[in-house]
Structures are given as C-alpha cells and as structure tokens.
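Tokens for chain A. Residues wanted.
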C-alpha cells in the first residue's frame, strides 16, 4: 500500500520525508529531488529566510544507483540554519542561561529568538494550538504548523511525479491565476509550458499580468501587508479510470481536494469549472462526447474527473490561498502571559505564499495520482505497472485511453 508522511519542525535540524509502497525501477536521483526543492524556494514575495537558508537533501534509503528499489524511501532535508536554533529547538533540556545568550553572533535578535512567544497571530495556528496542547509558548505550535514542512512534501512529490511520468506519461504543471486583485484570465496552458512558468517570478505567462502581479506584491510589502491568491494545477496524460465511485474516499476528486486543502493557508478548492459550473444549466455544464475517429470530449468543464474517476481529460484544480497571517502591520491580539491586549508577533515572513504554494500543490496532486495509479496497476514494479496499464487500456472498447 502506498503511503507517505513527514516529520520535522521549521527550525529543527532537519525535515524527514517517508514514502512506503513506491514501485521499484523508477528513475530518480537526488539531483532531481533537489531541483524540485529549489523550485519551491523561488517566487516573488518570499521572505528573507528563503535567501539564506538551504535545503540540504540526503537520501537515506529506498533509492539505489538512481532507481527506486521498492523499499521505504527516507529523505532528510537538513536545515542549514540549524546552528542558530540549536538551543531554542534542542531535543534535550538546556540550561536556561543558554536561552538568554546569543549564539556568538552578538546579534540581539539571537536572544529574542529564544523568548517565549505569547502574542498569538490571528489566522495562524498559535492560539488554538497553545490551548489544545497546553503550551504557554506558541513556539512548539508554529514550528510544526509552519509551511516549512512543505519542503518534505515537494521532495516526495518529485518521486511521485517520476512514477506517474515513467509509468503513464503523466505530466503536471501549475500556474498562478490570481494574486490579490490581479487576475490572469487566459486559458490553461498546455503541458509544454512548464519551463516558461518556472521562469516567471509569479508563475504567469502573460507579461502584462505578470508585471501587475509583481507590482501588487511590492505594494502590499511596502504597506506592511500580505496577499492571497489562486493557483491552478493541471495534470496531463492521466489515463481514464483512476479513483473510484465505489467508496466515498476512493473518489479521486475527494482525494485531490483533501490533499489540496491540507496545504497550509489553502481555504478553497475547485475541480474543473466547480463554482462557475454551479450557476449553469445542465445543458451547458457537461462535456459532450462525440466520435471523431476515437471518442472525444468537446469541452473539459469537469476538469478531467467524472464519478470520482479520471476520464482521460486533463485534471484541472484551483486552490484559493488566504493572505499570510504574519502581517507586518500587526493585528490585534492578546498577550497570553498577561491577558492584556497586544499586537500579534511578527519578526519576518513571506508577503504571499501563492507562488511557492503552486509548486506544493503540484506535489500534492502528483502524490494523489501516484497512489491511484499504483492501485489500478498493482504497483510493485514500474515495468509491470506499464504492462498492466497497457493491457487495461487495450481492454477499453473505444480505442481511447
Ligand atoms: C509556501 C508557504 C509559505 C508560507 N509562509 C508563511 C509565512 O511566511 N508566514 C506566515 O504567517 N504564514 C505562512 N504560510 C501560511 C501558514 O503556514 C498558515 O497560514 C498556518 O499554518 C495556519 O494554517 P491555515 O492557514 O491553513 O489555517 C505559508 C504557507 C505556504 C503554503
Ligand atoms: C521556511 C519556509 O517557510 C516559512 C513558512 C512560515 C509559516 O508560518 O508557514 C513562516 C516563515 O518562516 P519564518 O517565520 O521562520 O520566517 C516562512 O519562511 C519554507 O517554505 O521553507
């Protein structure tokens, strides 16, 4: 059975990513995974941390000589900034004097780093996390709630994308279709747009909209504010029949939506024409089937999924990201140490999570599709999966995958 998980705190020594049930024989190298990690760090609107921190990847198991071997894959993503955080995030008890001493840099912020955080940020996990787990400091809450964890997901997503690509010819890409009030209304790009999207600082192919998005971010930053937006993920080449209507949580759309919603700060998910489709009449809401040699759909309003199964068209998902909650122009809160009104804690943060969020969303879609592909084709070994897929596709009466 295919499964994955992550561990690690934002300022701990490392993140850990674990994947079980990936097939043997999939080509993947640490360079491929590092490239995926680098894509997640990019984008206009990222905060200071992305500039100096590095993701230090070590493959601990499950890959040999550039190929998966069917055993659990364990990855470590070391945090290059760990020495600064050694005392505050130490697993073992530390002498209290350690927490009031700088790490040798002479920087007063070193000491601030170690102080209990008692001014929870509205919109972040701080306050409820402290109450739920019984902490008088938001540090242990924000350390794990932080989207730093998405680096581990992106590393796993690179493996999932390799499975999908090599077994079924699937490719995935993402673009940003809205930042704040700036909207890209262009039609979804084709599968060959991946490189051009990576080259844009806001993952947008229209130069005028791209410039407006960059300006929107710069303006919010200047105002001490933050922004949300909308990301679109497109998965091309997915064979029909992944996922199932037979069980509620077997549905591919349910799995993709849950995976998308699991990303920090995602507050809305749409498959295909989702919310727009809800306002249409049925006669213009679906994708008519015609014969042109093989069967063909005239449209893809469903976003590639019918009855909880992929239908052979491109899968199209949109994710709404809320604005970052660490707002420099800090919001009202209380100091949990005194009960008095305060302004929410703020040291540094991203202006918007939308651009890296798109790369994370690709990873989540790849993981869901890989799981469904492994289920459909009995995924011990990539070669056998390819044979199984070919036999299944050949069994479909209409000569169309
Ligand atoms: C890639 C990415 C980067 C993020 N960066 C920040 C950040 O710098 N500051 C912040 O307060 N929230 C950031 N967030 C969002 C928080 O992690 C998120 O709001 C928090 O965990 C609470 O969860 P929720 O928004 O899903 O309710 C980021 C999210 C993503 C996906
Ligand atoms: C570290 C990453 O994102 C972090 C996600 C995050 C949050 O609250 O989600 C808060 C910020 O961390 P800090 O408060 O230490 O500056 C981001 O930098 C990353 O994406 O690698």
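Reply:
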């Amino acid at each position: 059975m295919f499964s994955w998980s992550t561990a690690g705190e934002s300022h701990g020594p490392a993140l850990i990513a674990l994947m079980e049930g990936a097939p043997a024989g999939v080509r993947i190298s640490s360079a491929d995974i590092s490239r995926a990690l680098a894509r997640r760090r990019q984008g206009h609107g990222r905060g200071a941390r992305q500039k100096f921190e590095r993701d230090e990847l070590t493959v601990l198991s499950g890959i040999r000589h550039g190929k998966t071997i069917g055993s659990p894959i364990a990855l470590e993503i070391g945090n290059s900034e760990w020495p600064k955080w050694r005392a505050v995030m130490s697993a073992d008890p530390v002498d209290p004097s350690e927490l009031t001493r700088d790490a040798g840099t002479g920087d007063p912020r070193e000491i601030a780093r170690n102080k209990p955080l008692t001014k929870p940020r509205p919109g972040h996990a701080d306050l409820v996390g402290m109450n739920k787990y019984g902490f008088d400091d938001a540090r242990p809450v924000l350390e794990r709630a932080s989207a730093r964890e998405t680096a581990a997901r992106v590393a796993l997503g690179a493996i999932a994308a390799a499975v999908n690509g090599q077994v079924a010819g699937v490719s995935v890409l993402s673009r940003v279709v809205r930042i704040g009030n700036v909207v890209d209304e262009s039609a979804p790009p084709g599968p060959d747009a991946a490189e051009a999207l990576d080259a844009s600082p806001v993952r947008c192919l229209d130069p005028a909209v791209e410039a407006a998005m960059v300006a929107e971010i710069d303006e919010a930053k200047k105002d001490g504010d933050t922004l949300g937006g909308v990301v679109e993920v497109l998965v091309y080449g997915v064979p029909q029949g992944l996922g199932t209507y037979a069980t509620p949580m077997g549905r591919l759309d349910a799995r993709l939506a849950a995976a998308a919603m699991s990303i920090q700060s995602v507050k809305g998910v749409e498959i295909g024409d989702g919310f727009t489709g809800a306002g249409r009449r049925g006669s213009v809401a679906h994708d008519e089937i015609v014969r042109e040699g093989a069967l063909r759909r005239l449209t893809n309003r469903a976003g590639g999924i019918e009855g909880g199964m992929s239908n052979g068209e491109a899968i199209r998902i949109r994710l709404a990201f809320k604005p970052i909650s660490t707002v420099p122009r800090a919001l009202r809160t209380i100091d949990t140490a005194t009960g008095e009104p305060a302004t929410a804690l703020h040291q540094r943060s991203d202006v918007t999570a939308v651009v890296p969020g798109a790369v994370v969303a690709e990873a989540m879609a790849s993981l869901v599709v890989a799981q469904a592909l492994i289920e459909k084709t009995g995924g011990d070994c990539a070669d056998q999966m390819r044979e199984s897929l070919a036999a299944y596709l050949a069994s479909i009466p209409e000569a169309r995958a």
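The radius of gyration is 23 Å. DSSP finds 13 helices and 17 strands in the chain.
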